Amino acid sequence: MKIKHWLGAVLLCIATIAYPQHTFTVKANKPIADIAPTMWGIFFEDINLGADGGIYAELVKNRSFEFNNPLMGWSIKMSDKTDPQVAGMNPPVLVVNRKEHTANPRYIHVTVDNAVKGDFLLSNEGFRGMGIKKDIRYDFSVMYHQATAGVKLHIALSDSAGKELGSTTITPAETGIGWHKATAAFTANATVMRGRMNIWFEGNGAIDLDMVSLFPSDTWKGRPGGMRADMVQKLADLKPGFIRFPGGCIVEGYDLEHRYQWKKTVGPIEERQLIINRWNTEFAHRPAPDYFQTFGLGFFEYFQLAEDIGAAPLPIINCGMACQFNSKEVVPMDDLQPYIQDALDLIEFANGDVASTWGKVRAAMGHPAPFNLTMMGIGNENWGPQYLERLKAFTKAIKEKYPAIKLINSSGFAPDGALFNYLDIELRNMQADFIDEHYYRSPEWFYANVKRYDTFPRNNTKIFAGEYASHVDGTKGDQKNCWLSAISEAAFMTGLERNAAVVNMASYAPLFAHVDGWQWTPDLIWVNNLESYGTPDYYVQQMYTLNKGNKVVPVTLNNEVVAGQDSLYATAAIDTVKREVIIKVVNASAKPQENTIILEGAGKTAAQATVISMQSNDLLAVNSFTSPTNISPKTSVMNVKGKKISVKAAPYSFTIFRIGMQ
């Protein structure tokens, strides 16, 4: 009896728990701002093996022998017959440097002496191995030169144990002056995460080789020499309003010699000049001595990618300043004109007529139609008077020739402090089109700054939240993207949307990270050699991009914006095309909350509403390759009666309600 009485008391206590109750008022017929089509976008940078070894599907590392160590990524295996230390002959491989070919000076000279398969092997390890997929065709190509024919190449893929996964042969036939291209294809018979490519030499003679390449055939849109389809699909699934490229800090470079120069990234692949990636040695805790930029993913491909996924292109160019954290190098103002001309020429490359100098280059690459460039960034995280001096020169030249182009201006590397305040004042005095703000901060900062833009001026100068991420334990920790980081970003983004009159663009950063090659964490999308998955933060971004609406309307709690009261955050928008009101609610507390939504001015509502929600009681929960959608949106339907809607916000949840209206 005592147990019964005790249990009854507990059940009565549970039944009478009073969850917090709130009433949100949504004024659906009182739009306060337009939401720009570019509101939610993506930021791409070649960090964490994002391009080479990532979205750019080339499998051969150091294909043109231009790394600081010309044979990095390659290994040589010789029998006693071909080993110069045993046979007393010349080395079978020499690296030759043709100084007159500045973009791609090196190639290898291979000598074989009556070799059979098994005597002499060149093997490439790929980028942390080569991801090989069963039943997929692989396309091999190589540039070669030979005085006389006599060498045959056996190309094969193998697993880590040496088992062959597919092979083909090439017998180069062209001789004499000049370089030629040989191609072959074969199909893999197994799937492995870390394969290799082997080239066995047979015959008698000598041959020069360059641009040794291997691509899977299942690239995005099946383009030869293209991008990894699964990674591009992750971007397309976000339906971003824009894509910012080619990055942040790599635009500046460690020094100006290694800055990003877009003109060296277009035209024939073999004529694009490789440089060291500035993330090669940036982080002592994650060294990447084999990290270079081949520019197989160059500015043409970036523009094409933007077009493919329906995003506005946003290129960032160097402003005559290297990274101010590294070399602090600047080009003198008297020598700035070539940098400015690069910006003007880039606009012509993107938009110019096919008869123009750079429009002709674009057309020759297969895209005679313009890319419809409307905006451009001048510098990345630059600051101080030296930046403003150079920015003004760029702005004057670009606006005189292309007045419709909107320019994105840097506010430095932090969202506050003396450097930020100085630039914010000066850029507003210049009537800047956009001020680019970056913030990598703790979840607490994101919660505390939901009202950041409530008091910003409502004028022609707009905000671009160009790089942001909630860091649970910094960039060097093992804690990647978890539900705590994602839900704090979801709360912060309610403030961005509510202030769409001020904020016209926003993008999370960084975008991609290779599980075996990252330098910086957290990141939005994680990949290995075969697969990719979106983090909880990715799905928060997707919930915003797919449920954007085009007009902000007020949503209030006790006549105030919903920005932290009882750990609740909310924003509302109207989709005038679908005639829906879209309400986003974040409950950042550990308790469920009963909420009532009152729709004012909505007309007659639909009988049912769509509910999209993410939730986890574990704030440190993550997604993974084995559980890629552990934290991801769930969609359901809710009955609606009238304009007073009762909803429950689960603990630690982000929920979107789409309600049809007349």
Structural class: alpha/beta
What percent strand? 25-35%
Number of strands: 35
When the domains are counted, the total is 3
Overall mean pLDDT stands at: 93
Low-confidence stretches: 1-16
What global shape is seen? globular
Pfam family, one: Alpha-L-AF_C
EC number: 3.2.1.55
GO molecular function: alpha-L-arabinofuranosidase activity
GO biological process, one term: L-arabinose metabolic process
What are its keywords?
Jelly Rolls, TIM Barrel, alpha/beta, 8-stranded parallel beta barrel, 35 strands, disordered N terminus, globular, Immunoglobulin-like, 3 domains, 662 residues
Describe the fold and architecture.
This protein is α/β, with parallel strands linked by helices and 662 residues long. The chain folds into 3 domains: 21-35 and 553-661, Immunoglobulin-like (Sandwich), CATH 2.60.40.1180; 40-57 and 220-545, TIM Barrel (Alpha-Beta Barrel), CATH 3.20.20; 74-216, Jelly Rolls. 19% of the residues lie in helices and 33% in strands. The strands form 6 sheets. Strands 4, 5, 6, 7, 8, 9, 10, 11, 12 and 13 form a 10-stranded antiparallel sheet that branches. An 8-stranded parallel β-barrel has the order 3-14-17-18-19-20-21-22, surrounded by 5 helices. The radius of gyration is 28 Å and the shape is globular. Keywords: Glycoprotein, Hydrolase, Signal. One of its GO terms (molecular function) is alpha-L-arabinofuranosidase activity. This is non-reducing end alpha-L-arabinofuranosidase.
